[in-house]
Amino acid sequence: MRLVLYGESGAAYWLCADLTCAKPRKDSSAVLEDDAPGKASCSYLLRQFPGLAQPVHCLSTRKTRGGGSFWKTHFTSYAYPPNSFWHIGSGLYVPSPELCFVQACTTTTDHRALKIGAALCGTFSVRPQSPTGLARREPLTTPGRIQKYIDRASCLHGTKKAARLARHIPQNAASPPEAFLCLVLALPGRWGGYHLPPPLMNKRLKSGRKSRAITQRKSLVPDLYWPQAKVALEFDSDAIHLSSAQATRDSTKRLALENSGHRTVTVTTNQLASRDRMSHIAQRIGQELGHISRNRSRDFSCQQNALFAEGWSLNWLFDPTWLANESAHEQRA
User: Fold this and answer.
1) Which residue from 292, 222, 202, 214 is spatially nearest to 262, judged by alpha carbons?
2) Cβ atoms of residues 224 and 182 within 8 Å
3) Using only C-alpha atoms, what is the Rg of the chain?
4) Of the candidates 73, 63, 78, 60, which has an alpha carbon nearest to the alpha carbon of residue 155?
5) Per-residue pLDDT tens over the stretch 212-226
6) Model-level pTM?
7) pLDDT average, residue stretch 290-312
8) How many angstroms separate the Cα of 144 from the Cα of each of 88, 141, 148, 251, 266?
């Protein structure tokens, strides 16, 4: 018997699990043969991957009843493209990152789907036992690869919504707050954003002579960057930048960016959490970019309230007890 994860549960796996054993399967139809989500298979899954939130979302070709708060079944009769599923353990499979995003678009809000997309396209994984709660890794996918998958699976439920959202997924975010910051600034008004031109995230820039003298580095990496106007935005978060050494490096980087002719804006955690403060920051960046605000949609205010209420946390994807225990283990260490 097999258990195949779905959507949000699949995304949680990709963000918190050790991926060394994950292998793609070319024959997607074979993966769904003899699939049987149930109490025994879900219990086994959670012993292997205790970080997944419940109910566990599972894909099945059988119209079976769900398991209440333990698991939820999503029926499919679709023939999936090759490499849509990855083998992650004995009888356990997860959708590819691209398919995870499409599936998430069928079960959650636009804002949460975009956050999942940004996490899958970001350079971080979730590690509650680390000081920052994160670890660095290469992106699992890109918005371009997601769009290519959508084109290959255009008849699949969720692809129309996924196609609308995929073009707005932040790429290369180094943390959930960075991804949220990009969404707030660049999303169109119908999703509650300020519709600024999308920035490059964590783009490596060659250092000039002056900046090399300041940082002793050959390159600079601003958090968000608009190259046409040479505008850089730096996110300053106590939750991410814990040490005084890191704070010094960040201050030095901002000074080096300014000495290289870049106009630099800094956003703090408190500012990012405030709709009013972010409105002023978006206006300032828009002026720096020479960007004229477009007419906003009628539901802009409602959508922006929802966007800020959602915030940047990804905790809903994970088991709260696991998050607390892993974090406590780090503190004891």
Assistant:
1) 222
2) yes
3) 21
4) 78
5) 555 546 678 899 999
6) 0.92
7) 89
8) 25, 8, 6, 34, 29
91 bridge partner residues: none
* Calpha distance 107→99 (Å, rounded): 13
DSSP of 92-113 = EEEE-HHHHHHHHHHHS-HHHH
**Residues 281, 286: Cα–Cα separation, whole Å:** 8
Q: What is the tens place of the pLDDT at every residue in 194-210?
A: 999 999 999 998 766 65
Burial of 308 (0-12, 13-18, 19+ CB in 10 A): middle
Q: Going by DSSP bridges, is the β-strand pair 92-95/3-5 parallel, antiparallel, or unpaired? A: parallel
What length does the chain have?
Answer: 333
Number of Cα atoms under 13 Å in the Cβ half of residue 274:
11
Three-state SS for 331?
A: helix
Give the 3-state secondary structure of residue 311.
Answer: coil
Hey, where are the domains in the chain?
Answer: 3-174+315-332, 196-293
d(CA 150, CA 98): 8
Q: Which CATH number fits domain 196-293: 3.30.160, 3.40.960, 3.30.70, 3.40.390?
A: 3.40.960
| 6 vs 31: CA distance, rounded Å | 13
Banded model confidence at residue 292, pLDDT cuts 50, 70, 90? confident
> Read out DSSP for 151-187?
HHTTTSTTHHHHHHHHTT---S-SSHHHHHHHHHHHS
Question: What per-residue confidence (pLDDT) applies to 306?
Answer: 98
- Cα gap 216→232, rounded to integer Å: 20
Confidence of residue 242 (pLDDT cuts 50, 70, 90): low
